[in-house]
């Protein structure tokens, strides 16, 4: 039986520890939590006991990370901490003899990525990246259609991702709003999308050019639209009560226990105003990518739209595929886990060059992302199974997805296209 410890008990952590406690007790043993915040770890233990009927496990503050590894002797470390700290825990875990499962993004810049790659080579240990979107049945179906040559060689892809005023706005309330923490949405969020393109096309990025900025959120943009009333955070603010962009932690027992009650330890405020100062990430982005196989991608991300999901079109030598996916809107940790990534609309249309177009049926499943989340969890914690689509993401996949966003961030700074090979040595 493999032993697991988990680092970072915030909003994403329960996806992993809940699955172990609920579905994989026979093969996996959860032995410890680690976090900068004791209150949050205590709440995670409360969930283990009350929601999953699992006994509480030892907790270690992050300053005692190495002590935890020595005492608990885990086989695998699960990293779900703040993005800028991923590399620290990944590297030290590898050096201490553990394999790693990390939440995306693997890290946020090329220097940290190089350190992870070098450590993997030095230690011979394994890092897996939790890309659940690969496992969503509609995304796997797209890979199957392209792999089976339904539209020939794909020469270009147009990919538009829409984040709405619940989920999209949430990145501007939390620690993600500081680019030093998250790498911005090109790294934190778009890593999913760039990984999908790598996965769909079976290639890797070569050159990246990006344009964008903070055009909707932030105080200056609100002032330019005529807003005159502002607040720093929603909790305790009269002005926030009528703001549709505000999140009220005290109205959600889960968010209150995880964040509001834990504030006294580290000062982290989960409910900052999306129209406040101090936001350094972009909300409007356009990217042009050329791949090693000569395919090109035109990509856009907007974080303030009326609906959530994506449209993507593939133009090939034998035809075209058009996809439209509308997801159920949600706030991270603000509702039922099963709501995250649930689909409200799905359409895949194949248009052969000299034949009638047709709809492609996709069989979904229970769980988030159309059944993709349970499939990912089974891949991480269950018995190994053959997968013709090779959806399990390695550290190379993790690096290639973030390097598109990292190159995009460099392009935003310089105004120039960036060669991905110039960023890192494998």
TrEMBL record:
Which PANTHER family does its entry note?
Answer: BILIVERDIN REDUCTASE A (PTHR43377), BINDING ROSSMANN FOLD OXIDOREDUCTASE, PUTATIVE (AFU_ORTHOLOGUE AFUA_4G00560)-RELATED (PTHR43377:SF2)
InterPro entries per the record? Gfo/Idh/MocA-like_OxRdtase_C, Gfo/Idh/MocA-like_OxRdtase_N, Gfo/Idh/MocA_Oxidoreductases, NAD(P)-bd_dom_sf
Protein name per UniProt:
Oxidoreductase family, NAD-binding Rossmann fold
Molecular function (GO) terms for this protein are:
nucleotide binding
Q: Which organism is it from?
A: Sediminibacillus albus
- Give start and end of each Gfo/Idh/MocA-like oxidoreductase N-terminal domain: 3-131
- Annotated family: Belongs to the Gfo/Idh/MocA family.
**Pfam families reported in the protein's UniProt record:** GFO_IDH_MocA, GFO_IDH_MocA_C
According to the entry, every stretch annotated as the Gfo/Idh/MocA-like oxidoreductase C-terminal domain falls at: 143-420
